[in-house]
């Protein structure tokens, strides 16, 4: 996906790096898509989110999340070290600014995985980012996925589905919509790949500054 | 590239067909790119341009061009049967409207290959089309290509290069720029494929009406 700058308007200068925001309702499979892109060595800097929640079996600190204490997270909020943060279901999640800035400063594209509210915050700060909305192919599929995860009880699942219904309406604020259809993960991944490749060919590249 | 409509905003309706305009300076290789896409069975209706020029060895009437008499071409102009037409180097070239309308009415994406002036005309009629500018990687490469073609003499080649320099400046009116680098035809084709795929994922699809 990286290639020499060819756009005649760029005068031989490299195209600016992209900031790609991957969002969508809880349970839609943002993590699965992201992990698949990592496995396929997508040439992105994948920003690692900070959280105060408990590490789950199989998760790796600094890879899946930066797992920090509640106290440390609140210090990060107070000292404006986060691009965006939220308290979701009693858990803090936030994006350390330094990671995004560092990566973009070295010309690398950056991929953020955030919830729909977080995307709205980033849109205010960086409207020139590429906003991709990951959607389920149906509510049933979303319920199924939340149930399989088994870390939530039934009430929590229904609460999340209600939130998801609201979040789905936010699609109109995004640039692209990609469906993560059960059993077709690579279809979603390939669509995201095409979106990134197309954005690289824009005559007027998006200029993101944070 | 075709798939069921998934965009939540489309309410189960199929996304409208795309009108894709492939343009660029004379000699940049629009025909090579187009023929390669045809060979690869890109799911497009490739509009066949009408012309009054003499058929070249190896060309097929109704496939490479609709070869018509000068008299017939001028009748098509007078009766507004052409979406766009031009008199280029003493030869008429134009796009029959019925082909574009017919294809789009049946939901098929349409690909037009036209020169830079023609693209400007189509932009006025159909601003929601996808405008792709095919560019050479250098002027030398363009000169080389025009020379190899051997159907033009040296003066004609220099005249075309002068025109090409002007045409290159028109890139700023296009959505995307794709470089047709010598020996890397499939790179250009793949970038066009990605652009089309990405356009299919837009939250608000382009609505073209002619």
Automatic annotation (TrEMBL), chains A, B:
Domain of life: Bacteria
Start and end residues of each Guanylate kinase-like domain: 17-197
Stored Gene3D superfamilies: P-loop containing nucleotide triphosphate hydrolases
CDD domains reported for this sequence: GMPK
Pfam families in the cross-refs: Guanylate_kin (PF00625)
GO molecular function, one term: GMP kinase activity
One cellular-component annotation, GO: cytosol
EC number(s) recorded for this UniProt protein: 2.7.4.8
Keywords assigned: ATP-binding, Kinase, Nucleotide-binding, Transferase
Family stated for the protein in its record: Belongs to the guanylate kinase family.
PANTHER family: GUANYLATE KINASE, GUANYLATE KINASE-RELATED
Protein name stated in the entry: Guanylate kinase
Species the sequence originates in: Candidatus Viridilinea mediisalina
